[in-house]
Amino acid sequence: MGLGLQGSGMASARYAAQQGAIVRVTDMKSPEVLAPSVQALSGLPIEFILGEHREEDFRWAEIVIRNPGVPWTSPYIRLAQEHGARIEMEIALFLLACPGRVIGITGTRGKTTTASLIYDILRASGAPTLIGGNVAGVETLSLLPQITPETLVVLELSSWQLEGLAPHKISPQVAVMTNVYPDHLNTYRGMEDYAEAKANIFRHQKSGDLAIFNYDNPWTRRFGEEAPGQIWFTSLERGGSFARHSEQVEPFRFRDTPMAGRHNLENILLATTTARLLGVPDDVIAETVRRFQGVPHRLEEVRERNGVRYINDSASTSPVAGQVALEAFDAPLVLVAGGNTKHLPLDQWPERIVQRCRDVVLLAGSGTDELLPAIQQEVQKQGVADPVRGVFTDYREALAAAVELTRPGDVLLFSPGFTSFGMFLNEFDRGDKFVAFVRALP
Predict the structure, then answer these.
(1) How far, in whole angstroms, is CA 44 from its chain's centroid?
(2) Which of 68, 237, 244, 338 measures 20 to 30 Å from 7, CA to CA?
(3) CA 156, CA 117: separation in Å to the nearest integer?
(4) Which helix (H) or strand (E) holds 26?
(5) What CA–CA distance (Å, rounded) separates 72 from 286?
(6) What are the DSSP calls for 323-360, one per residue?
(7) What is the pLDDT of residues 265-303, one digit of tens each?
(8) Which run of H or of E encompasses 308?
(9) CA gap 356, 353 in Å, rounded
């Protein structure tokens, strides 16, 4: 249920067909949108029901593999359960079959950067290492034939993917939690519900398993105190990492990085602490951190043109991500933001926008409808000029307007702070379109 375009649905369908199951794939998106995914599965005995969900398919199924974006509350999931179906998710099927050692990384922010850096460090150490999970374009189940008991498997895991582990009471042997902030509250009953989904990454660990938590975030600090395994904390505020119940802090040695922002130092501290606990030598860690440029769509520097740096932060889909992006730069900012709401608190983001941004260009959407009055309120409160230069329904017009506003020495920051649906397929499509626009500038 849910073929999608990023790999998870395709992997589930391929795996099920390869195991000899009779497979139907159903997705509400049109056949035209899903054509690349259907093409990727050509030659397999799979029936596609696209552009709709049919009740008959959910009454027919013995197992429903739901895409992470499908909520438990879906009436089709309930219908399948009423007819005796098992509800599964790709990541649970993977963990149940995986012979290697799994290092799982989750958190509201920073999980992709942390997972990517852990993967690069482990590879640089010479260990056989694969990466999967919530990684665009990777079919995680399709990795299984390459995995032996010696393989290290780095999995970035979303809260939705982690829900699939709870029925089986399984967790990765190594768990890393970056932080927990308000997010996805349009699909969860509240913060406790959302955080508890994340907690599946360590809840079912054994006493000899390993878990690393960010001590500076209240949620992950609490979870670190509760976790059953061998627990380490990382803390920029305390200057390093330490075992639970220990006063001895291992100093943070790996600050030589091309990546901007304090939040990236948090990610590096988590990744390097994990690598050291897995036995990687310090010189390998230091060299990998020095050359690690970050990941696409996350404060990614696209180019410098006429003295202006163009930054793609399209993975910023929440106000807290938008706020952190602003705090990563000292230069004058031209901000492109806006999109559709997840009903998250704006917190200090509007205040930071008015403080830090000379010019602001907004993309239309339900989130922008929440943000605009909050910016105007901050303008009055701070007694400064309104930085907003317009709300645009066409992203090309918005980006062209933003480019016109730039001066040498500026940063043009594309950090929407909301989701992308409507104007773009997803945040990756949004980022790709920004990058293509910027690279095409004369």
Answers:
(1) 30
(2) 338
(3) 11
(4) strand 23-27
(5) 43
(6) HHHHTT--S-EEEEE--B------TTHHHHHHHHEEEE
(7) 999 999 999 999 999 999 999 999 999 999 899 999 999
(8) strand 308-312
(9) 5
CA 230, 95, 146, 42 torsion: positive or negative? negative
Delimit the CATH 3.40.50.720 region(s) of the chain. 8-84
Tell me the CATH number for domain 300-440. 3.90.190.20
Query: Which residues are annotated binding-site positions for ATP?
Result: 107-113
CATH class, domain 8-84, is alpha beta
Whole-angstrom Cα distance, residue 378 to residue 398?
23
Q: How many angstroms separate the Cα of 188 from the Cα of each of 73, 198, 344?
A: 10, 12, 12
- Is pLDDT of 150 > 90? yes
**Residue positions in the annotated binding site?**
107-113
SS3 258: coil
> Residue 359 — very low, low, confident or very high, per pLDDT cuts 50/70/90?
very high
The pTM assigned to this predicted structure is: 0.87
pLDDT tens for each residue of 18-56 = 999 999 999 999 999 999 999 999 999 999 999 999 999
